[in-house]
Amino acid sequence: xxxxxxxxxxxxxxxxxxxxxxxxxxxxxxxxxxxxxxxxxxxxxxxxxxxxxxxxxxxxxxxxxxxxxxxxxxxxxxxxxxxxxxxxxxxxxxxxxxxxxxxxxxxxxxxxxxxxxxxxxxxxxxxxxxxxxxx
Length: 135
Fold this sequence. Notes:
This protein has a single domain, classed as UDP N-Acetylglucosamine Acyltransferase, domain 1. By secondary structure, the protein is mainly β. A hairpin with a 6-residue loop joins β2 and β3. It has an eight-stranded mixed beta sheet with strand order 1-2-3-6-9-12-15-18, with no helix packed on it. It has strands spanning about 5-10, 15-20, 25-30, 35, 40, 45, 50, 55-60, 65, 70, 75, 80, 85-90, 95, 100, 105, 110, 115-120, 125. The chain is built from no helices and 19 strands.
């Protein structure tokens, strides 16, 4: 059946070991916590110290950086990037190729569209249609 992990060398010459998540086969670094009920699709990366809650989905090509928090039932779409120490609330939706900056916060139930950007340290809340609300 093949090995259940992959070793990847980072920019500093260190080798990091990623295991293939049981639900979706995406890569989860040693030290990251991903609930078994979360889905991490093949081609997605979860870095050390990140946490992904139950029912969340991390789509193909998405990248969750170190110490980021992904809430229950959140959806991180294809090729999205969640910066270090960023937080995505429960049931939030992050669009395709969207970038959430380091330390940013996306409120629960927020909908961030495709190709958008949340600045580092920023806070975003939206209504059900994705219209931004005053913070």
